[in-house]
Amino acid sequence: MTWDFEGEIWYWRGPAPFYFVTVPESISADIHAVAADVSYGWGAIPVRARIGATTWQTSMFPKGGMYALPVKVAVRRAEQIDDGDLVSAHLELEPGRPQITVR
Questions:
Q1: What's the fold here for domain 7-93?
Q2: Which one of 6, 8, 30, 62 is most buried, by most CB atoms within 10 A?
Q3: pLDDT tens-digit series, residues 72-101
Q4: Are strands 2-12 and 86-93 parallel, antiparallel or unpaired?
Q5: How do the domains of the chain map onto residue ranges?
Q6: From CA 101, how far away is CA 30, in angstroms rounded?
């Protein structure tokens, strides 16, 4: 499953500050419909995301009935985006679940 959308970059000042873009309600509903099959815990949804020419792997998190896509520092720098900027994003659900190695 893939989606394209536009959203505004916003900053979360929590204990681990980060930037996000909120996935629109209609796309969030599509993702929620398959969340039980793709989530690997705490509602995290593994995705491959793209903004501009930059692609990365991350996990989205549920927030307020929608999903929040984390936008890494390297992505923001490469694409010259900051808090409040409107971005076009592409999402692709990552097949399978992350591999965890126990040592």
A1: Elongation Factor Tu (Ef-tu); domain 3 (2.40.30)
A2: 62
A3: 999 999 999 999 999 999 999 976 554 443
A4: antiparallel
A5: 7-93
A6: 31
Kind and range of the H or E run holding 48: strand 45-51
Rounded to whole angstroms, the Cα distance separating 45 from 32 reads: 9
Letter string b/e over residues 45-65, b meaning 16 or more CB atoms within 10 A of that residue's CB? bbbebbbeebeeebbbebeee
| The residue type at 41 | G
pLDDT band at 38 (very low <50, low <70, confident <90, very high): confident
Taking the model in full, what pTM does it have?
Answer: 0.86
